[in-house]
Structure formats: structure tokens, C-alpha cells
Amino acid sequence: MILTVLTWVSLITGGLLVLLFLLSLLGGLELDIEFGSTDIETDAGGIGLIKGCLTFVSISSWVMKVLLVTNNHPGLAIGVGLFSGLLAFLLLNWLFKLLLKNESNVNWKIEDALFAKGEVYLKIPEGEGTGIVNLDINGANRELKATTEDKLELQTGTKIYVTDIETDHVIVARIKS
After folding, report:
1. CATH code for the part of the protein at 110-174
2. Span 126-172, pLDDT tens digits
3. Is the pTM of this model over 0.85?
4. Closest of 168, 153, 177, 165 to residue 116, by C-alpha
5. Torsion on CA atoms 16, 33, 90, 95, rounded to nearest 10
6. Angle at 125 (CA atoms; ends 123, 127), nearest 5 degrees
């Protein structure tokens, strides 16, 4: 009887877990749970509350069932099952944080480029001409039109930093090494 219950618990919670993962990956579904004035986000940079509980219950019940079938010691099955559920939760949470670490902020303003360092991508000609520079802004590589502060030519690959911002381009200076 207990083996049947553990099988159904692990299958139902595992199925719900897979369904929630598919909905969140394909459709962007995010679930929020509110307890009074506290707001708990289920997909805030990790596995989430609901998915974490489903992972724990599914893995724990499945491991308990397997251990009860192979070894009739219920204390060992419960202990190893709970430990394996916790381990699965922590492993999945670490994996999600690792995947989301590469996520970059796509919202930026040209003002974010002020004092950013980068390099010349397309040569900036002498005088009033513009070139293109690559800058690291909010963790992402951006290409912006640029002129030089001292109106001198800067070749491709020259290390620069942004000293000022105009409406349609940035003003850069060479980094002296």
C-alpha cells in the first residue's frame, strides 16, 4: 500500500514539476505567492518556492519507494529519501542560478556610457569625424558612435574611456598606459 502511495505521489509531483518548467521556459509563466505584506517570487533567480517543494517531494518519495523495495528498513528509506530530496532541490537551485547568471540587463540609456571603458571598433578620424566604439554597459557589449576629446585620430583597437555624452554620440579619450 505504501509503495503505491509513494509511486503516485512521485509521479504526480514530478508531472506537475515538468509542466511548470515547460510553462516557465516556453511561455514565461511566473507565479507569485503573497503572504500578507510579504511578497514571495517563485522564479526570482532560482528554482522558486513551488518548484522547489515539488522537486523535494517528488525525489524524496521516489527514493523512499526504491529503498523500501530493495531494503525493508523504513528508517533508512525515510532518512535517505529526505536527504536526496534536499540534495536534488539544492542541485537544481544551483543549476538555475548558474544559467541565469549569464542574463544581461537590456535596458540602458546613453547616460550609462559615461566613464565606461572600451576600445575603438571603427577608426575615429581626425577633426569632427565620428567612428564607432565598443563599450561594456550594464554587462553587455554596446556599439556607439564616438568622437575624440582632443580631435586626434584614434585607430581601431585603441583603448578608450567615455568623457562626455552628446545626444547622438559619445566623446572619448585615449587611455594612457
Report:
1. 2.40.50.140
2. 988 899 999 988 778 889 999 998 989 999 999 999 999 998 899 99
3. no
4. 165
5. 80
6. 155
The 10 Å Cβ neighbour count of residue 87 is 14
How many whole angstroms separate alpha carbon 48 and alpha carbon 42?
Answer: 4
C-alpha cell recorded at residue 42 = 517563485
Question: pLDDT by residue (tens digit) across 11-67?
Answer: 999 999 888 878 877 776 555 454 555 444 444 445 677 888 899 999 999 999 999
- Residue 97 near residue 91, CB atoms below 8 Å: no
Question: Which residue do the cell numbers 509503495 mark?
Answer: 3
Tell me where in the chain the CATH 2.40.50.140 domain(s) lie: 110-174
